[in-house]
Specification:
Strand content: 25-35%
Shape: globular
Helix content: under 10%
Structural class: mainly beta
Number of strands: 7
Amino acid sequence: MPRTVVFETTGGPEVLAVRERALPEPGPGELRLRVAAIGLNRAEALFRAGTYLERPRLPATLGYEASGTVEAVGEGVTAFTPGDRVDTVPAFSQNDYGVYGTHVLVPARAAVPHPAGLTPPRAPPCGCPTSPPTAPSPRTATCAPATTC
C-alpha cells in the first residue's frame, strides 16, 4: 500500500505522520512517480511550521524535490513515459502537490530528466533553483555529496 507523510497541525518534525493511502491516479498534465529519494529544504520546514510564504491547507503533505520513476502519465503528457527516471523541481505549491511519499503525483512541468551517472539520493538537491551558484543544473550533473539547498 502506498504511504505518504502528512501533518494535521503546524509545528516541528513531531507533527509529521506516515499514512497509507490509495494509489493516486494522474490527472491531465500530471505524472505519478514511484519515489526513490527526496530532497529536504528550508521551505518545507517553514511550510510545515506555518511560517512559509503560503500557509498549509490542513491536513497537508509537503515536499518539492524528488527523484523517481514515472509509473503513469495523465492526459496531455507527451514529454515523459512510464519507466522514465525523473527529478522534480520546486515549480508548484505544496498545497497542491507534495513528494514525501512512496507514490506521488506531480505536474509534468515540474519534472526534468534524471541526470545520467547520478544515484537518486544525489540528484534532487542539484535541481533546486536555490542551490549554490557552483552547483550544476540537473542537465550538467556532477554534484558533490555535500551539495544541498
